[in-house]
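User: Hi! I'm working on a homework problem where we have to compare a predicted structure to a textbook description. Could you give me the structure for the chain below?
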Amino acid sequence: MSRIVHALMSGCAAATVVMAEPAFAQDGEVAALRALVDKQARQIEALSTRLRAVEERDDTTGRDESGAPRVAAVAPASLPAPASSASASSASASMTSVSPVSWDRGVPSIESADGRFTFRPRLRVLADGSTSSGSRFPDRNISGTELRLVRLGADGGIGDFAYRAEIDFAGDEVTIRDAWFGYEKDISLGGLRLLAGNKLNDRSLDGATSLTSIPFAERNTVANLIAPQGGSYGVGVFASVAGERGHLSLNVKGEGEGSNDGTRNDSLVVIGRGHVVPLRGEFGFLHLGGWVFHERINDNVGLLAEGDVEGSNFNQNIAVLPGLIRDPRSIDAFGVEVAGVVGSAWFSGEYGERHIRTASTGRFKQDAWSLSGGLFLTGEAPPLSSSEGVWHRPEVHSSVTNGGLGAFELLLRYDREDQTDAPFGGRGNFATLGANWYLNNWAGFKLNLVRYNILNPIGDFPGRDRGVSAVIRGEIVF
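Assistant: Happy to help. Predicted structure tokens:
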């Protein structure tokens, strides 16, 4: 390019000399003109040499000293006039409002361009089919179907603040489940959470985990029996710190939304839980934990009469009854837990006790324990969180939606509970064989076969009884 420019400019200069000579009559004027042309020719030659050097360097590297592609310089005169402040504000607002949408979890997750605003809808549907047989009581040998859980909601964040709201439509009624907001921040000890609202209790390994994430179709006896009388949810405040080696939490709550009609005091529950990970390596990790709670029961509760249903949620007739516990006033409970992950296998053990103080009949003890384990035949990592101490859904290596086989898991569990310390209280044990087929990260099927052995001194089904319940579940969880 420099040679072309030089030839054109030299030619123009020579033409100027030829055309100019006849126009001047005096030799002095011609000499002055020649000197001016020679000066311009030298300047053109110098510029041409500099341009040739730049072009040769560009042809060799194609990039500048920083490694970035070279961009042709633009003369200042060709730049557009600066935008007005109003135009700049409008452009900035437009860039901030851009919301990339991700479908990584099967639903649209929306996030602002600066990452400070997030929103994600949530959907959970669990549909069960159940059948029971083998009981000497015909009314226990029943079959049916139910929508175990149908839940709609959303969660997200605004800067360091998070929120979640979910409504459950199962059981022929509408119930508020998780409905909270709060502050989340990473600190030196781990992830700090300060929440307020209606939230699942952090109590026991199974009890602190959502029903959609536990390995079996239903929670174990420790989570079901050694629980506050007010339920697994409650409106209150929650604080926790979770790091790589464990977590600590404290929950102070009243009764769940809709439990109190506004004519009496709420029951009050204080729950504390923590766990540590003393061993961790390429093989997996070991989880050790414990929890306690104290519940002050409102004066309107006259009798603890609810049974602990096991096996199939549909069949409420398979239950261990607490006996006659009148005028309960408070419950003190504790539990210990051990769990671990070794490759694609996992194990878990829990024990819990609750001591019920009454106003008229003394104190009574109830206890339960559970042992369980599982193995992913397709090599997935068991989804036990070492930092939070809860179960998550597994990450499927080869999903059916991508042409794979999904993930297969085999499970075993043995539960035992004893409520015989109270007059006419029952006891029971339950052995469960399970198989899970996860189609992908958000959908799958679960099959549980439960062998039950129950003794209730009183009730509609008195005496010892045994039988088998089978539950098959289809689930989709976003």
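For your comparison, note the following. The chain is about 15% helix and 45% strand. Residues 2-63 form one domain. Good luck with the assignment!
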